[in-house]
Amino acid sequence: MRRARGGVRRPVSIGWKLAFHIIVLTGLAVLVTWVFQVFLLDKFYEVTKRRELRRSAEILSQNIDDPEMKEIASDLAIESTMRVFVYQITDTGKNLLVDVDATGGIGIYPEHEKIFNLVTRARENDGIYIGKIHFAGDETRDENAFDFWLEGENQVQYERIKAGNTRLVCVKVTQNQSGAPCIILLDAALFPLDTTVHSLEMQFIWIAGFLLIFAIFSVCSLYRRISKPLIRMNEAAKQLAKGKYDTKFVGEGYLETRELADTLNHTATELSRVDRLQKELLANISHDLRTPLTMIKGYGELMRDIPGENTPENMQVVIDETERLSELVNDLLDLSMLQSGNTTFSPTPFNLTEAIRESMTRYDTLVRHRGYRIDFSADGNVWVNADHKMILQVLYNLINNAINYTGEDHSVTVTQTVKDDCVRISITDTGAGIAPEEMPLIWDRYYKVDKVHRRAMVGTGLGLSIVKGILERHNAVYGVSSTVGQGSTFWFELHIIPVVCDQVHRLEEGH
Asked: pLDDT at residue 102 above 70?
């Protein structure tokens, strides 16, 4: 594989890789088939023939006393194309019990005395011996006999047999029910397979050619169905990278390419939404920053240029706007740290009910001077193991959000309810509510339900994003329920921890 400049390996297209693997797989399949069906054909043929002789000898040994022994031997001889001899050894010599020939008269002379030397080998080999006989030629003294050698495990023995082809001889030593020794002699031909092997070689040449053509055709077909859709999606992805979020990805052919196209289409939709919301966020933050900066600059110039305007009231406006800028910057910093995971998380046991009551005092001025009513109801004191500062920040942000969006009655309700081992804190307003399709999006830091930007009564407008980050850091369950025209309820749940009375007093005194 060639390398591009700088030593970086140049990527190879899926078409070439696909062609390489299919051709290699096809060639490997042809090679393996040729090795087993051509190169090793003689070996398999001989092994199979040896198994047939061994099986036949065992069957004959098991039926040595059967009255139909000859019929059984005849069936086996015809099945395996062999000659069968069965002898019973007596004190006076050998008695031929069965002589069945299915070879056409070409085979060994079992009457030859030296053929029984094979019996010794059979007895040394668990009662059975199988050997292969090769003919040596016609240079012997008897024109009807030839020298031959019998391949044993570690020896070669010459014998005299009648003319014929290369053969397998099986000798089985057994005994009948009366205990008389018997000898089973099987003789089968090993036919030459040169013609068969040559025919198979020619077949495999044609098969290999057809398989190669089929492999090339398959590569072209698969390339069209796999590679071309990927190329089109790659071009569409380049357009998406340029900011064209209306790009459509089309997947054809296989399930994976269609799923990839669906995923990329969803990604394009999400990127389009994020881009739009990010622009809205920048516009909203710019507005929130511009307003206090304009007021600070205006009041500063007023107090500088007009004598007598350096009043406590004007200074308080400058201080209030400065605090608002500080809160906005702090909220942006908190949100960034939560999303990056760089915040310090220190859970400790504390009284959640008392913490909520104490946080209500922060809104006394808002309640007295602007007519808001913030009520809190609890069904007892509960303790939780959480980060005290973060949970208070969640409470402040949810209450501030309810204050900003409550109805004309300026009413906000904070409720604590206990169920099993969990406590739920709910903050309810009486505002316009949230449409069902917008509820999953309100936790997004870029999202704003009210598209007409207005300055929040309290807070910076990033509260819900901060709430989401903190509660997820606590593995807490949270959510919102809302009815359009009636208001919304934001809630979250924490696990309650049991605290013994003396521990409660010590913790409260320390707190």
From this structure: yes
